[in-house]
Design goal:
Number of helices: 12
CATH superfamily: Transferase(Phosphotransferase) domain 1
Number of domains: 1
Structural class: alpha+beta
CATH class: Mainly Alpha
Strand order of the largest sheet: 1-2-3-4-6-5
Order of helices and strands: EEEEHEEEHEEHHHHHHHHHH
Strand content: 15-25%
Shape: elongated
Largest sheet: 6 strands, antiparallel
Number of strands: 9
Helix content: 40-55%
CATH architecture: Orthogonal Bundle
CATH topology: Transferase(Phosphotransferase), domain 1
């Protein structure tokens, strides 16, 4: 039963099954809905292979300038080649409906990662891919629906979409129709002019939190965020906290630093051992332990405590005795002097 149009979750079809695009791509059926549009499976009648078609919501590209910018940015993204980027075959338009044709990839979305996924190994590889991309560009919209997983690897989508689609309607529709907004860095949501590779570091931190806890909690919700982190080891908590800071300057400065933190957590045995001072046997023999250390070694702290108490009581007793003796000495001297005076008188 289709959703009513009053419901904001209602997503109208952009293309229909059987429709032919660019005289070669025959639409089969809808696969999923993402923030920017709808993902379809289609058949390429020229290469006789299946392809992905990402159709963009018409409301996101209204003016001629916006449409031209979208086509230009997607052509630039098509030139970026990487083993873990899903290649773009074609960028086209049919009656004001823009679409992107990708190679087919047999896998699933990162939103439901398999239980056998080697999490930290995957994040090391993902961070390495992002580091490679940061030499020329950065993603900015890294979220679960832009990551496709397979048994032998993964592929990324969405490169250049951040700059290809107008910011305000893009973020509005993402907030309305998608669960991916928490994975986007705050400066990207606000449309800051100083967005750089640290936005991808924020997304990696949120993805790591999501896959380890199966929850999506932003750091701005301090109480819920702290409760969510409690189930993680302390080093992982530190990695997540630093990655998802609201301030870009407080995050890891590079992807390499992010990877170094994960390597340090995974390989504690690689840390250099603590340096201990070398003590020769002769020095040990010549060194004489004091009285308290002997008591600690033989009888423990209880014996040391009692010995200290004994010393205090003995000191107190001697002090009292000394005061008493000092009081009696002048009186005895006075009596002795008077006795001598009486004997000396004629």
């Amino acid at each position: 039963m289709p959703l009513p149009r009053k419901d904001p979750r209602f997503i109208p079809e952009i293309f229909t099954a059987g429709e032919l695009l660019a005289k070669r791509y025959r639409v089969k059926f809808q696969l999923s809905v993402f923030a920017e549009g709808i993902l379809y499976l289609a058949h390429d009648q020229k290469s006789l292979s299946d392809v992905f078609i990402r159709a963009i919501f018409p409301g996101l590209l209204q003016s001629n300038a916006e449409q031209s910018r979208f086509v230009e940015q997607m052509k630039q993204a098509k030139k970026v080649v990487h083993p873990h980027l899903l290649p773009i075959q074609h960028v086209g338009e049919v009656d004001g409906r823009f679409f992107i044709v990708h190679d087919f990839f047999k896998g699933s979305s990162f939103r439901e990662p398999p239980h056998s996924l080697p999490i930290f190994d995957f994040f090391m590889r993902l961070a390495q891919v992002m580091q490679d991309l940061h030499k020329t560009t950065w993603h900015g919209l890294l979220h679960p629906d832009h990551i496709l997983l397979a048994e032998d690897g993964f592929s990324l989508l969405g490169l250049k979409l951040r700059s290809a689609i107008p910011h305000r309607p893009h973020m509005s529709i993402m907030q309305l129709r998608s669960q991916n907004l928490p994975f986007i860095a705050p400066e990207v949501r606000l449309g800051s002019a100083t967005i750089d590779h640290r936005a991808d570091i924020y997304s990696l931190g949120m993805l790591l939190l999501f896959v380890k806890t199966n929850r999506v909690v932003e750091a701005s919700n301090a109480r819920a965020f702290s409760e969510c982190l409690q189930s993680l080891p302390l080093p992982v908590q530190s990695i997540v906290r630093r990655s998802v800071s609201s301030y870009p300057e407080a995050r890891f400065s590079t992807m390499q630093h992010f990877m170094n933190a994960i390597e340090e957590y995974l390989s504690p045995a690689l840390k250099p051992p603590a340096v201990r001072p070398v003590v020769f046997e002769g020095a040990v023999a010549a060194r004489r332990p004091n009285f308290v250390s002997m008591l600690k070694g033989r009888f423990g702290y209880a014996a040391a405590l009692f010995s200290g108490l004994f010393v205090v009581l003995a000191t107190l007793f001697l002090g009292i005795r000394t005061v008493q003796m000092a009081r009696h000495v002048p009186e005895e001297r006075h009596v002795h002097t008077e006795f001598l005076y009486q004997n000396v008188q004629p």
